Amino acid sequence: MKKIRVGIFGATGYAGLNIFRILSNHPFVDLKYLSSHSNSGESYKKLFPSFNTDLVLGPTVPEVAEDLDACFIALPAGETSKFVIDLIKANNNIIVIDLGADFRFKEKEIYERTYNIKHNCPEILKESVYGLPEINREKIKTAKIIGNPGCYPTSVLLGLYPIIVNFKESIENIIADSKSGVSGAGRKIAKDYLFCEINESVKPYAARFHRHQPEMNEQIKLISSKAPDLIFTPHLIPMQRGILSTIYVFFKENLPGEETIKELYYEKYKNEMFIRVLDGDLPSTAMVKSSNLCAINICKTSDKTLKIFSAIDNLIKGASGQAVQNLNIIFDFPENLSLTNLPEVI
Ligand SMILES: NC(=O)c1ccc[n+]([C@@H]2O[C@H](COP(=O)([O-])OP(=O)(O)OC[C@H]3O[C@@H](n4cnc5c(N)ncnc54)[C@H](OP(=O)(O)O)[C@@H]3O)[C@@H](O)[C@H]2O)c1
Fold first, then answer.
1. Counting CB atoms within 10 angstroms of each CB, which of 19, 92, 233, 252 has the fewest?
2. pTM
């Protein structure tokens, strides 16, 4: 099979580095272009000696699209929408998979309010597809622009999906309490993420409002317009990678038994190669570390309350792995190509 030519914009960040790592094992991808903001002109191998490549980092410019079939964009929010129109002008057939937030929302007002950034090309938002394959696979197959989901939303939405689909009218409240490793904040240098600030401590943040909350609400409402807005609190924990979400769902009516609810999960995810609905164990971040897996379990705690637990690696299923999964779907490759590695067990 002919290889596709792929570029990574933002190849020096945590998400971009992990895309490079995953694609290094991809038999149908020819990595052609890597960009950086502050290290343009540097050899990639010099910056990351364990990556054996002759590629030299270039700037984040649209004209390189001419020589690419697909690109991953792993830049801070707002940067993609500044140059994506010119990127598409340079190559009208290019597939764009954006790991930032610029193409996750259908309504530009919600994006602009959430990120406090003006969207530079709202006219193409309607063409973009929210890249959560377990929910949107059919739309992803024909998409040209993917808004790859945020890390917290991936863990919460996959945990909630069978419940929202099956109990549309009867959900009273949803509370999601998520814990994330520090890599979720990216590779930038900031006081809050210094070792001494993080180590031996756990703390909530963005408690009043987190920017992933509108993203989750929009997606939940697309499944059921009757579902309530979710209450969400993220926590930073002294760990490099991983997200564990504990989701409390309160119902208006009595629930069926726990095993019946569990069957809904087995049924919904029976053909999903990256979802592990656990039998007995509760999910942990260690269980999914460095893999594209999402581990889920549930626990009915009263007639009208359910706890859902969902664990992912924020950098893989929450970012780069999911992005490669989307690439595989769009190009009709096996969906798990180069994503089959098992979690690191220790
Ligand atoms: N980290 C996660 O767990 C995660 C999960 C899901 C989604 N995401 C999203 O994925 C994107 C990348 O995240 P990340 O964690 O990889 O961030 P990161 O580690 O901070 O990397 C950011 C990348 O963007 C480049 N960059 C920074 N400012 C730029 C600018 N003004 N113009 C062009 N390029 C710029 C950086 O280049 P240099 O450093 O070489 O200058 C670097 O390559 C973000 O939108 C993030 O929200 C991240």
1. 92
2. 0.97
